[in-house]
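Saturday, quiet lab. Running sequence design on the structure tokens for the scaffold JK sent over.
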């Protein structure tokens, strides 16, 4: 009996073993159902493409032959990541027969515009932070001797890109371009493109989950298919040589099999048409004696510059302005002369509730208001804006501050956070390195002083200088809480008790002052600080504000000096149409905002070595932190213009100051 049982179970085990072997062989080699193969191919692609980031980013794609994938895309909101299971979303798996149980589908559901954030497109998504799947199909045939790239202007925050069910790659960072060469993945006929976008932020991300702006998610900028010859111009930089301004320096990087066979640069208006030898890595550089008319805010002159492979098989054309920018003592010099920065800070949020800027027209509307303010400078805060902004600024003659979102307390101890910040900085610089308007790269905003932070930012500043030796490095500082307390106790409190001091001294002793070329400060005299003090003293807010307003013009910022110093933020909130007699000092009234601006102008005049200002902010913007219902309603109201484009009283105050400034600077 026992031997029979043993024989039978041995037999059963053998059969089972043989069956699973056969199944594995069939799975690997057999001709099994298409969708099963799709699942396995999908799983395999996940394993192969774990790493982050795309192929080296193609530059100036809009000047190249491209196909836009803009339009209505099918989408699915996926708060729990259901679509990841078995790759149902990446494969856009749909039920085949009525008996097939499906619990995921792109059909008959949500559609979203691309480019565009999802928050302003569907009431369910206003504050949504999570995964949204995007799907569309397209046909594309790569021309012989060419490569096809899938290019994204930006996707917030993490994008996983699937082509025909397989993972092409992932990109982290919500505001800079990325692309992949997908030539070998394209199919004849219809291709399936599915993108998983996740805008949930973690403490180790850049930025962190806590920001004073709405974390717009989605495929916020253009998605293109860009065809380039096998050997093509990957990156180029053409500008005045920082070592000898009487010369133009042209740098190029070719990619492809013939990358070492040289390139060309041509600027017809300057009679330039020369070859550039390239090394095995496709890199080449030349200096060209030339004296182009300089680009400046007063005359934003640009030249058509063409960069090509040796036989002109690949040509990229761009309109580039030539100018120098330097920090000389406590001044910023443009083309060898000091220029005061008459600025305004801007969030990349279009007017009329349209969410993230993704079109030239939206960018033009914002910059139009800045122009009417009398600005010659804009601070694009706190992340890399759409490429339309810097390109328009080039045309309009506006100087630009660009920034990556190292904002408040990022994880300065974390190596991967630093790597993410560096990647965002590199992608921003590579995109806008030929924009004459861009003069400042900002490495941080209001980061709390500390050893890890100082190390992190010093390394980031060095990274910027290694990537670009033609521009200035800046950062927006904020007064350290202990120094602020010292300022309250030493100057503000005595004044509240009626003791008059000739001047109030606001200390800024941040070690970052030594690291950057242009230290900048965010200060909110007249808005923050008074309320807090009134809360802990017997004085009313009205009185505390009165005393502060009466003294703003006497405040002097004490800093190490010797560098151009900028006020990168200041301002006050106002709800457009909320009118209250000034004497009542009613916060959020237009009168109060205008009063704070008048006092801030006095403060600006009282600062020696002030090289520029960019008050906060051009337009009211969405922020989950602003919860004063009935007034703020999840909007930061420090705009000089409402979301509907209505100008507040303070708009006129700043415009008048800039008109006077422009007149005196022209002298
Ligand atoms: C800070 C910060 C901004 C914020 C502003 C404000 O300085 O940099 O992002 O919106 O203050 O409080 O309105």
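Result came back. Writing it out in full:
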């Amino acid at each position: 009996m026992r031997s029979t049982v043993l024989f039978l179970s041995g037999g059963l085990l053998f059969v089972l073993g043989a069956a699973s072997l056969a199944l594995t062989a069939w799975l690997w080699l057999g001709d099994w159902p298409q969708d099963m193969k799709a699942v396995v191919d999908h799983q395999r692609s996940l394993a192969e493409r774990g790493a982050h980031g795309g192929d080296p980013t193609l530059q100036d794609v809009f000047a190249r032959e491209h196909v836009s994938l803009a339009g209505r895309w099918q989408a699915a909101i996926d708060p729990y990541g259901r679509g990841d299971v078995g790759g149902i979303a990446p494969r856009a798996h749909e039920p085949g027969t009525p008996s097939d149980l499906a619990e995921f589908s792109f059909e008959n559901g949500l559609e979203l515009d691309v480019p565009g954030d999802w928050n302003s497109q569907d009431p369910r998504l206003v504050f949504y932070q999570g995964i949204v799947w995007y799907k569309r199909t397209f046909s594309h045939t790569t021309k012989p001797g060419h490569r096809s790239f899938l290019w994204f202007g930006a996707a917030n925050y993490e994008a996983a890109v699937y082509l025909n069910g397989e993972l092409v790659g992932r990109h982290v960072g919500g505001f800079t371009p990325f692309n992949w060469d997908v030539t070998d993945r394209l199919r004849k006929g219809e291709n399936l493109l599915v993108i998983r976008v996740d805008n949930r932020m973690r403490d180790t991300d850049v930025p962190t989950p806590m920001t004073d702006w709405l974390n717009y998610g989605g495929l916020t900028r253009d998605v293109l298919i860009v065809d380039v010859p096998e050997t093509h111009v990957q990156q180029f930089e053409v500008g005045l040589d920082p070592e000898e301004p009487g010369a133009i320096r042209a740098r190029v990087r070719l990619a492809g099999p013939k990358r070492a066979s040289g390139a060309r640069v041509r600027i017809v208006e300057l009679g330039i048409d020369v070859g550039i030898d390239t090394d095995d890595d496709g890199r080449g550089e030349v200096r060209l004696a030339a004296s182009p008319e300089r680009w400046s805010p007063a005359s934003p002159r640009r030249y058509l510059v063409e960069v090509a492979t040796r036989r002109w098989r690949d040509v990229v054309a761009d309109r580039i302005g030539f100018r120098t920018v330097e920090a000389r003592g406590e001044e910023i010099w443009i083309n060898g002369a000091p220029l005061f920065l008459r600025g305004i800070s801007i969030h990349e949020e279009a007017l009329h509730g349209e969410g993230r800027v993704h079109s030239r027209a939206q960018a033009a509307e914002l910059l139009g208001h800045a122009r009417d303010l009398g600005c010659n400078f804009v601070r694009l805060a706190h992340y890399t804006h759409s490429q339309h902004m810097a390109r328009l600024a080039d045309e309009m003659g506006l100087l630009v501050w660009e920034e990556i979102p190292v904002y408040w307390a990022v994880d300065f101890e974390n190596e991967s956070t630093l790597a993410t910040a560096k990647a965002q900085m590199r992608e921003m610089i590579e995109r806008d390195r030929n924009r004459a308007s861009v003069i400042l790269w900002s490495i941080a905003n209001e980061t709390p002083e500390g050893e890890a932070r100082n190390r992190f930012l010093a390394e980031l500043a060095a990274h910027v200088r290694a990537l670009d030796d033609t521009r200035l490095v800046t950062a927006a500082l904020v007064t350290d809480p202990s120094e602020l307390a010292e300022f309250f106790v030493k100057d503000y409190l005595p004044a509240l008790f009626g003791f008059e001091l000739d001047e109030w001294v606001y200390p800024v002793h941040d070690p970052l002052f030594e690291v950057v070329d242009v230290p900048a400060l965010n200060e909110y005299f007249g808005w923050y600080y008074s309320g807090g003090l009134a809360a802990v003293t017997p004085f009313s807010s009205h009185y505390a504000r009165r005393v502060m307003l009466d003294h703003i013009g006497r405040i002097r910022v004490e800093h190490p000096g010797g560098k151009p110093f900028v006020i990168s933020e200041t301002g006050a909130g106002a709800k457009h149409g909320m009118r209250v007699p000034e004497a009542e000092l009613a916060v959020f009234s237009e009168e109060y905002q205008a009063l704070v601006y008048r006092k801030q102008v006095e403060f600006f005049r009282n600062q020696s070595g002030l090289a520029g200002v960019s008050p906060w902010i051009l337009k009211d913007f969405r922020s989950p932190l602003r919860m004063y219902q009935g007034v703020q309603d999840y909007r930061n109201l420090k705009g000089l213009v409402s979301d509907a484009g209505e100008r507040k009283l303070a708009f006129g105050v700043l415009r008048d100051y800039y008109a006077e400034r422009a007149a005196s600077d022209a002298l």
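Notes for JK: The pocket of alpha-D-glucopyranuronic acid is lined by residues 212, 382, 445-446, 522, 569, 616, 636, 638 (CB under 6 Å). The chain has twelve helices and 32 strands. Ask whether to fix the surface positions before the next round.
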